[in-house]
Design a protein that fits this description.
mainly alpha; 13 helices
Amino acid sequence: MTTTAVELRLCADQIAGAAVAALHAEAQLTPKPGLVDRRGNATHPDMSLRLLAVSAEALRKPLCDCAEAARALEPGPALRAEIGVIGRAGEQRMLAATGGVNTHRGALWALGLLSAGVAASAESVETAAGFAARLAAVPDPVIVPAPLSHGQQARVRYGAGGAVAEACAGFPHVVHHGLPALRATRLRGGNADCAALDALLAIMARLNDTCVLHRGGRDGLAFVQRCAAEVLHSGGCLTAAGRAGLERFCAAAERRHLSMGGSADLLAAVLFLDAMFPDSPEGLPCRP
């Protein structure tokens, strides 16, 4: 192996390591409405923190492979085809590790594209997200017949864009909402967990989460977006009122059996990009 190849491998390993660390951090973050955390499995009887940790580690290799592919191939159909091969193999690797439980399919899609974006275009958050968007917009040449996932069913039924539209748009809920909220709370003196929870709420307040739509329909989605916005309006996790509102939100989401899995995937992307670009401008511009 040449020196260049060694350096490339280390760089790809570092990128994948940061992505896996983001998955671990998202899982451990507590309390999260409708999601597995340190207090329990909420609305996911088939999941646990341990299972999420096993799943995150199973994705280390495919995420590393995505970064390496982006360094080795020019952006375009060949790279998109290779990312598709890596993604499908990575999904099978995840399912084998979890006994068939879909823990991180959406996260693999988002973090795989963003790992490629960081590897190929490491200037800023927005250039990495832009590269990921251009890659996501290239059609995958391989179509594998499979039953529609819950997210795909929700996209068809409710006309939601879902994970594909989010990626093709350059991850707007990550770049223009989640990341600015994370950094704004940090600047106000919030610790890492407080900042991450506010970022999650900022995503939930705006995202048409297909996981929520699958379980709760449009009424469930409106409820989630309203509750998240109310917590933020109360000051978020830096205030007693915000923390109390978050606890009420958690309890209500569990009663309604709602899952905000799409928001969780995008929070992992926020934490990943924040780690990759710690010196980028604090508080990227928010957009509606």
